[in-house]
Structures are given as C-alpha cells and as structure tokens.
Specification:
By secondary structure, the protein is α/β, with parallel strands linked by helices. Helix content is 56%, strand content 10%. It contains 20 helices and 8 strands. It has helices spanning 2-13, 15-22, 42-62, 118-129, 148-162, 173-185, 189-197, 214-229, 250-257, 269-286, 296-303, 308-325, 331-337, 339-349, 351-362, 366-370, 376-392, 397-403, 410-425, 427-441, and strands spanning 26-31, 34-38, 69-73, 138-142, 168-172, 201-205, 233-238, 260-264. The strands form 2 sheets. Strands 5-6-7-4-8 form a 5-stranded parallel β-sheet, with helices on both faces. It starts with a helix and ends with a helix. The structure holds adenosine-5'-diphosphate and magnesium ion. Residues 106, 110-112, 117, 142, 144-150, 275, 308-309, 312 line the site of adenosine-5'-diphosphate (ADP). Belongs to the DnaA family. Oligomerizes as a right-handed, spiral filament on DNA at oriC. Residues 323-442 are annotated as: Domain IV, binds dsDNA. Residues 1-78 are annotated as: Domain I, interacts with DnaA modulators.
Length: 442
C-alpha cells in the first residue's frame, strides 16, 4: 500500500520534494491508527511532519487506511542528533535557562484586529494586563498563520513592560519535549522541574505536538498543575481545540478547557486589507522609494485567501522585486511576480477540488453528492463540502449552491450551520473536517 501512497504523494508534492523528503521515509508499521516511519535523523522527521504530514495522512487515508497520526522514529530517539551538520541546532541542554526574548515586531500594536480574531485578541490583552489571574489557562487555537504565536509574543512584550520582574517563558511544545527528554537522559529532572516551576507566566505554543507522547504529556501535566495551583498564568496554543486533539489524555484535555478557550477564525477580506495596509509602513521602511499603487492591496486581499503568513510572503516578495527592478508596485507586477502563490491559493478556492476530496474521503461519487439524494450517506458529505467551500473559497453562497445543483442558497446556509453545530459535539466529524481542511490547504 505504501507504494501506492507514494505515487500519489509524488504527484502532490512534486518530484524534487518527493526525492528529498518522501523517498527517504521507510515504512515501519501501521498500528491502531498510528503510522510509523523510520527516518535517519530527527530533523528529517520533523521537517517531513511539518511540511508534508497532512498530505501523507491524506493520501494514506485515501488509499483506504485509517490513519490518524504519523510517527517518525529515528534509530534512537533519546539520543541527541548524530550528525550535527544535517541538524539545525542541537537541542538545548535540559536545564539551560530557557531564554526568551519576544520578537520585536510581534506586539499588540502591530496586531490588526478584525471579526475573526477580536476575541482572541481581547483575551490575550486581558491576560497581559491582568493583575489577578483572569483566565487560566488561556487556550488559543486556530489554523496556521492566523496569529497565535504573534499574540503570545505580544503578551510577553506587554508583561515585560508592565512588570519587568516577572519571569515569562515561551516555549514550543516540541522544545519542551526535547528539554524533558534531555533532562531524563542527563538525570537532571530535579533541575528541569525547578526551572519550569519558578516562572510567573508560561506559554506553550503548538501543544498538539505532544499528542501521543505519553511521558512528555505526563510531565507537562504536572508542570501545568503546579503553576495553575500556585496562581501562575498559563497560555497555550494549538492548531485545534483541546477536544479535537487526539491522543491527548482526557485529564489534560479537561484541564486545558477549564480556563478560557478561544479560537482564531480564518481571515475575512476586511481583515486581510487591514493587515496589508498596516504593513505598508514597515515595508516602506525596508525598501525606501518603492511605492505601491492604489488597488494592489485590494487585489491581494481578494486573491490570497489563505493565511496571514502567505499574505506577508507575497508583500515581501513584491517589495523586494519592485525594488530590484526599480518599478512601482502595480496589479500587473503582482500578477507576474506572484503567479505561483496565486496558483496555490486558487487551488484552494476551487469548489471542484473540494468536492472531489470530500467524496474521496467519504468514499462516495461526486455525482451522488451533487445530486438531490437525501440519504444521510450523501447528505453529510455534501454539507461538509459546502462548509469547506464557504471557509476556503471566496465564492458567494449562491455560487456555491449552484455547484451543488441547488437553485437557492438557503441549503448552503443550512449545511454550513449544521456542520458548525455538529463539530462541537461530534469529534469524529470534527476530525474529518480538520483533516480535509488541512489537506486542501496544504
Ligand atoms: P500562527 O502562530 O497562528 O501560525 P503567527 O502568529 O506566526 O501564526 O502569524 C503568522 C504571521 O502573520 C506573523 O508574521 C504575524 O505577525 C502575522 N499576523 C497574523 N495575524 C496578524 C494580525 N491580525 N495582524 C498583523 N499580523 C498578523
Ligand atoms: Mg505559531
């Protein structure tokens, strides 16, 4: 089966990515929804997991396997990377002070607030200002590039300004795990515990990473409880809600939920315009003399409906290019220079592709999904597809309706609401939607 999946992946990621990243993977086992690969280095595993994980999952599931999670196993995971050359940085010794200086540009001032992120923003602000512990923990979740890390750094800036004596630590869940593993190996658990328990504010980013990593979870849980019980503030981020993180112990889920859980929604057009406009000054600072014509911002906000990171990437490239060739930034320049980004973004906005992938996922035919059949086996996937079209494309509801053979758009509204509602309680459905969404956004 892996052979077949690899074929699909080769087409999906392109020949050169395939050769560098997918081909070296050695299939190990598939057990209880967890697919394990053997990899040469931790770096390779991490890289593949971050960049191609969703696509691998998608293709495995498409090939009829039920896989929820990927695992990349190095020869001996507890040993530090063997070949420093191929590795980014050697994981820090377990008990080095976790140094954290928030990135200068990631402040509240520079965070543009819109409908989709106002709650998360308000909550983060409150926590940063809070004399007494306001929401503990604050759990921020949302898709990639929507501002979770930005908000966490902003909280750190704000706290540092208000009370420099406070010890604020920000750490990715991955790095938490590394430190923990290293502490175990170096027999420095006491120091490790001591270090993490002496802080005032702990922020753990991308906590979904520790799903399935049992002993790391265990340690995280103790640290978490200790800090909360001593009245210290905790902020957690993840790419999905606590309830939707598989392979996370129930007791941890419930503790994560007992503070305030807020999500960052995908950006809407107005927010994208706002964010782009807010960055103009910044870019003009870096590329003095480059001017941007009216209409370009508007155009970009329409054309790029993915995440803020992609928007920023587009701006950076435009300014760099314009400055290089000594031209002003026009819509035509953007068209030339960002064709590949648009293409990637357009792929996302194709209703056909959403329909195809959803049908693949649920194992039904597109013609059955589009038709009027009321059978639940078709109705639910149809609603999921409508929901994804609403979320991932910039098409109007009537337009979406037409693609599903509906003459008016009330069916679409109903379908979207239905899925939104069901996802709250039906974790299987929520997982299906998350998986599809990530595969489509990849
Ligand atoms: P996440 O951690 O959710 O994946 P990040 O916080 O890293 O996303 O955000 C990705 C990029 O987009 C960062 O450069 C961040 O500054 C920028 N960004 C995200 N949301 C906003 C916003 N509302 N206003 C300004 N910049 C934003
Ligand atoms: Mg982040």
């Amino acid at each position: 089966k892996w052979g077949e999946v690899r074929e699909g992946l080769r087409r999906a990621v392109g020949a050169s990515n395939y050769k560098s990243w997918i081909e070296p993977l050695e299939f190990d086992s598939l057990d209880d929804g967890v697919c394990t690969f053997r990899v040469a280095t931790t770096f390779l595993g991490n890289y593949v997991s971050t960049n191609f994980g969703d696509q691998i999952l998608f293709h495995l599931n498409r090939a009829g396997q039920t896989v929820q999670r990927l695992r990349f196993q190095t020869a001996n995971i507890a040993r530090p990377p063997a070949s420093p050359a191929a590795e980014p940085a050697e994981p820090a010794a377990a008990t080095d002070e976790v140094e954290f200086r928030p990135e200068a540009r990631l402040t509240f001032d520079r965070f543009v607030v819109g409908k989709s992120n106002e709650l998360a923003h308000a909550a983060a602000r409150r926590v940063a200002e809070g004399g007494q512990v306001a929401f503990n923990p604050l759990f921020l979740h949302g898709g990639v590039g929507l501002g979770k890390t930005h908000l966490m750094h902003a909280v750190a800036h704000e706290i540092a300004q208000r009370d420099p004596s406070k010890k604020v630590i920000y750490i990715s869940a991955e790095s938490f795990m590394w430190r923990f593993i290293t502490a175990l190996r170096e027999k420095k658990m006491m120091d490790f515990k001591q270090m993490f328990r002496s802080i005032d504010v702990l922020m753990v980013d991308d906590v979904q990473f520790i799903a399935g990593k049992e002993s790391t979870q265990e340690e995280f849980f103790h640290t978490f409880n200790y800090l909360v019980d001593s009245g210290k503030q905790i902020i957690i981020s993840a790419d999905r809600s606590p309830a939707d993180i598989r392979d996370l112990e129930d007791r941890i889920k419930s503790r994560l939920q007992c503070g305030l859980v807020v999500d960052l929604h995908p950006t809407d057009y107005e927010l994208r315009v706002g964010i782009l406009q807010s960055k103009i000054d910044y870019y003009e600072g870096i590329y003095p003399g480059v001017t941007i014509r009216d209409g370009v911002i508007d155009y970009l906000a329409h054309r790029i409906v993915t995440n803020v990171r992609v928007l920023e990437g587009a701006m950076t490239r435009l300014y760099a290019f314009a400055s290089l060739v000594g031209r002003e930034i026009t819509v035509e320049l953007a068209q030339d220079c960002l064709a590949d980004i648009f293409k990637a973004s357009d792929r996302k906005v194709s209703i056909d592709e959403i329909q195809r992938k959803v049908c693949d996922h649920f194992n039904i035919r597109v013609s059955d999904m589009i038709g009027p059949k009321r059978l639940r086996a078709y109705a639910r996937p149809r609603q999921v597809a409508m929901y994804l079209c609403k979320q991932l494309t910039n098409r109007s509801l009537p337009e979406i309706g037409r693609h599903f053979g509906k003459r008016d758009h009330t069916t679409v509204i109903h379908g979207v609401r239905q899925i939104e509602k069901l996802m709250q309680t039906d974790s299987q459905l929520a997982d299906d939607v998350t998986l599809l969404r990530r595969a489509l956004e990849a």
